[in-house]
Predict the structure.
Amino acid sequence: MKAQDIMSRRVITVRRDSALKEAIATMLEHGISGLPVTDENGALVGMLTEGDLLRRSELGTERRRPRWLEFLVGPGKLAAEYTHAHGRTVADAMSESLHYATPDMPLQQVVEMMEKQRIKRVPVLEDGRLVGIITRANLLRALALAAPSLPAVSPSDEQIRQQLETELAASAWAPRSMLNVAVQDGEVHLYGTILDGREREALCVAARNIPGVTAVHDHLIWCEPTSGMVVEAPPEPDQPDQPAPGQRGA
């Protein structure tokens, strides 16, 4: 999947010379938390987001530091912060650092950019022209559409076991050498030893995601490597004791 597959093509922008009050009104009117900023020629020059408006003199939230720290910070940075907190135009408050995608950029790279730069939206540029924007809401909509549907034919227990085996073989975290899996009537039983408590939920998630699985039963034992402490699997709620099915190696 690429950026152009999920981006919003209707992009609401604001001019850098616009009054900050007008930009805030636009954000509130459209229910958005950020705006791409353009110059008089329509070229992208920055972003204005809710985060840029946290430190404002009107709110009494401008940044304050002890005198000794102000000396270390220097007058240049202090002057820039003053402009950011007291300015009345979009240019005064916006972030000038730009991180953007191209229409054919793989979605994986877009998400990595959002994580690394800690941003919630990425403008999409084609030949320097703003053609779209990707927000976290776009990612959620794409995820909803990509959610797997139930198969028309229920797979056999052996097919379920094989699919789970394939999934775990492709996962570097999976403790395959210490794991046994049994499948009976669509219900997956997980046996074995794990060395990290987080592996328990990951294994259950992997099993639940296999088409045809109706239930997952956790019989795993967690052995903490440092202390040697052993933690049994948590009891299943409202489940009577039943003979376990035969165990098979995954």
